[in-house]
Amino acid sequence: MQNLIQNHLVQAFDWEIIEKPIFSNNRSLLGYKAIFRNDTGGLLNVAKNSYTPTPNARFIEVVERMSEITGFPIRCYETFEGGKKVLAFLECTEKVQVQGYDFQDYMLIGNSHDSSTGFFIGNSSKMIRCSNRFSRVFRQLRVNHTRNHDGKIEQLIGYFETFMQERERLFSQMESFAKVRIDDSLKQALAERLAGMTRDERLGTKELSTRKENIINSLWQSIDRECLALGDNLFGLFNGATHYTTHVKKVKEPIFGNALGSLARINSDAFEFCEAHL
């Protein structure tokens, strides 16, 4: 049954990358190449010849081997920005709780074709109580696209223990968030930071735009909602941000787990803000 599910998922992700030379005035441009999708012809990247992409077939191979090693079933594959980035989500069978709240948890495996990231592994989670989503890439589990990177990707496959340690550390940090009390000034500081307020706007020497004012109000509503439920602590504050990115902020290209794009950046910024106040 699991093999049938995996075959179905792979069929929905059945394109590959191709590399082609770049021409200018009917001459090949030395030192550079272009990377395209083989199905739509969409341009994914213009890179130096030293850039060594990871084909989708290799990505899928790693995902399936990680699923076999961990026992985590493959939940889904995702593409972002027309295929410039590809992701896979493996559902963790070991359940986790923070402050007594259940989380649905995934191993996140990703790769880019546009030089924005290398090959990486991280974590993606959903708090069952409110469906708030948060994803985080683990720094120790990243490989850049250099000429010898395929061997390093092979090593990643054996780093399941490292993944589990980083996963445990991530949720331990969230537990620590719940122990730190906050007041309205810290809520205001996070809302202003996530809204991108400038120093002049914070000092009142420059008028806030209606759009930015609406963003701050929406952030405040999400933060108040989550702090009311989880307490006036960093855990409530952080979940205010993930509530905003999960349920309030609209994006053109939503992706499972809020793993990439502006939603991921807001969540990451909020997590680092809370870390700094531990």
How are the SSEs placed, and which strands pair?
Layout: H1 2-11, E1 17-24, E2 27-37, E3 43-48, H2 56-70, E4 74-80, E5 85-91, E6 96-98, E7 101-112, E8 119-127, E9 133-143, H3 149-157, H4 160-177, H5 184-194, H6 199-203, H7 210-230, H8 234-248, H9 261-276
Task: Please tell me about this protein's structure.
The chain contains nine helices and nine strands. It is of the alpha+beta class and 278 residues long. It has a domain of 101 residues. Strands 4, 5, 6, 7, 8 and 9 form a six-stranded antiparallel β-sheet that branches. A three-stranded antiparallel β-sheet has the order 1-2-3, with no helix packed on it. Strand 7 and strand 8 form a beta hairpin. The relative contact order is 0.11.
Helix content: 40-55%
Overall mean pLDDT stands at: 93
Q: SSE string, helix = H, strand = E?
A: HEEEHEEEEEEHHHHHHH
Q: Bin the strand percentage.
A: 25-35%
Q: How many E-type strands?
A: 9
What's the short story on this structure?
43% of the residues lie in helices and 27% in strands. With 278 residues, it is of the alpha+beta class.
What distinguishing features does this structure have?
278 residues; alpha+beta; 6-stranded antiparallel sheet; 9 strands; 43% helix; globular
